[in-house]
Amino acid sequence: ASGKWEDAKEPLEKLIALYPQYAGDGNAYQLLAEAHRNLGETEQERAVLNKLASKSCDAIYAYGRLMEIAVEKKDWQEVVANAEKYMAVYPLLSSLHWQLGRANEELSRDEQAIESYRRLLRLSPADPADINYRLGRLLQHTDPAAAKRHVLMALAEAPRFREAHRLL
Q1: Phi-psi bin for 4: left (phi > 0), alpha (psi -120 to 50), beta?
Q2: What does the pLDDT look like over 98-141, one tens digit per residue?
Q3: What is the rounded distance in angstroms from the CA atom of residue 148 to the CA atom of residue 167?
């Protein structure tokens, strides 16, 4: 609570050594990862979060943070791997579907990206114009009619969306 992150690392590591299987609420792995995060030690944070994810099948904090780190590093394979684990626990998070769609788009996995974006549209995203535009762009070669429909929906949401006008 006082922000002494360096001092917190040693007792947390000892706690993990004494109770390595405990991955419940307020576990030492999560606290140690938070200490590493506040000290700017991303690789150590990532290692601790991976250990936590291997100990618990519902470590959504670990999956979410590992996805954030992977997005920053543009490691799209890692984003997909952690998003699939996260989705097994909590499938109704719209940001999860957006990140999964974005990662699949970057990996040129158009079918998976389309499916993620379609699921996202069902969850009422904050920016449906962007999602519809992305769907239109992904579908333009395989299903031109659906692509046009998605681009028109994007323009209905945001009439001055220049990229959507160009795609149309």
Answers
A1: beta
A2: 999 999 999 999 999 999 999 999 999 999 999 999 999 999 99
A3: 9
